[in-house]
Amino acid sequence: MTDIFRRIIEVGISVTALIVLSPLLLLVALLVYVTSPGGVLYCSKRIGINEKPFTLYKFRSMVSGADKMGALNVAHTDSRVTPIGRFLRTTKLDELPQFINVLIGNVTLIGPRADIPEYIEKLPEQKKKLILSVKPGLSDWASLFAFTQYVDFAKTDDPDKYHITYIHPIKIALQEYYVRNHSLTMDFHIFFLTALRMVKINLAIPAYVQRIIDEAKNNILKQKIDNGYH
Fold it and tell me: What DSSP string describes 91-102?
């Protein structure tokens, strides 16, 4: 019954969002189309529940073919990002077409963010099975933690290495926690915090989530020390 109730809510919200936001969606689509060559949407291959691949939709924020021209992780200062794309990324408006994914049913509102195959393949089998045992979502604790990761990427010469070393392990820890402990109450909490972040209101994440982040950071530091880095 909980799954049915959740599906009814997510379909209702996604349909309402697509209708209410349709003028904005059309405006953004027009701006993307007239400001740089290429399609309006960026179709990204992601891995969903039970390791089933699917296509995730975003407004295109980079030059056409950018995913074959450099790092996987992109700073807002990356030359591949279009002028309108920079605005879309910082405001998260590029994510709005993902309500189509929610309506289709391969993504839910709240759940671990669907990752690209390259990162899924790097996960230990146990972690992979756990995280991919639930449907991916538009937002989760990991998304809130990494809400402005594009700023951090601009501070390093190797965004991919920075991501896999300092961000990805924390995301995985948060996703594991979510899968093991998620509830409707937690989902509403994440939805509420995400909506506020979208309008630049940054409420603190709960203390128990911050403890997971701190523990993951300590594990990263310990691993660096064990590997001989100071």
Answer: HTGGGTTHHHHH
**Nearest residue to 48 via CA among 102, 5, 121, 106:** 106
The string over 37-74, giving b where at least 16 C-beta atoms fall within 10 Å of a residue's C-beta and e elsewhere, is eeeebbeeebbbbeeeebebbbbbbbeeebeeeebebb
Q: Which domain covers residue 131, as residue numbers?
A: 2-226
What pTM was estimated for this model as a whole? 0.88
Output the furthest CA–CA distance in the chain (Å, rounded): 55
138-195, pLDDT tens digit by residue? 999 999 998 877 777 878 888 888 888 889 999 999 999 999 999 989 999 999 999 9
Question: What's the total number of domains in the chain?
Answer: 1
